[in-house]
Amino acid sequence: MGKPIEYKHTYETDRFYIVGNGKIRVTSNQKTGEIIKGGIVEKIRVANLDIYSPNTKLDYRISVNLERPREMPNGSHSFERNKDRLCYTHQIIKAGARGSQELTHELEVEFIDPSILYEERLKVENQQKNRYFEIVEHFLNNIRVLAKKVL
């Protein structure tokens, strides 16, 4: 029997700061105002793959991003959003649905620890036994199931 699905509901505020050519996101708990663990990051987009899915009620995008920890920026933030986030974690995959004050909705599916995928990719490159394609297939199947289940 596998690990159970864990559930967490949070209310967070993201504040965005423009620093040099980049953007830093600072995430805090709405109730306490405290910055969450790992809540100050610079998010760098590497690539996006937009997928048109005519047999489901929604399309989806696979994005590859780097998130680098940063120090608290100086000055005032340029943009803020409040999030009402539901998060489900199962094995190596985390799915989070969130809404914001602008009434947008987003479902994010991500690897809890992306280094696992990276290590498996290195094994592929070194022609070692690996689980890379199995892990990627598991990840994509999660997205496909969620896309089919949307109301």
Automatic annotation (TrEMBL):
Pfam family, one: mRNA_triPase
Biological process terms in GO annotation: 7-methylguanosine mRNA capping
InterPro entries listed in its UniProt record: Cet1/Ctl1, CYTH-like_dom_sf, mRNA_triPase_Cet1, mRNA_triPase_Cet1_sf
Main location: nucleus
Cellular component per GO, a single term: mRNA capping enzyme complex
Keyword Ribonucleoprotein: no
Residues of the mRNA triphosphatase Cet1-like domain: 4-110
UniProt EC number: 3.6.1.74
Molecular function as annotated in GO: mRNA 5'-triphosphate monophosphatase activity; polynucleotide 5'-phosphatase activity
Required co-factors: Mg(2+)
Reaction catalysis annotation: a 5'-end triphospho-ribonucleoside in mRNA + H2O = a 5'-end diphospho-ribonucleoside in mRNA + phosphate + H(+)
Keywords: Hydrolase, mRNA capping, mRNA processing, Nucleus
Compartments in which it is found: Nucleus
Similarity comment text for this entry: Belongs to the fungal TPase family.
Self-association and partners: Heterodimer. The mRNA-capping enzyme is composed of two separate chains alpha and beta, respectively a mRNA guanylyltransferase and an mRNA 5'-triphosphate monophosphatase.
Functional summary from the UniProt entry: First step of mRNA capping. Converts the 5'-triphosphate end of a nascent mRNA chain into a diphosphate end.
Record protein name field: mRNA-capping enzyme subunit beta
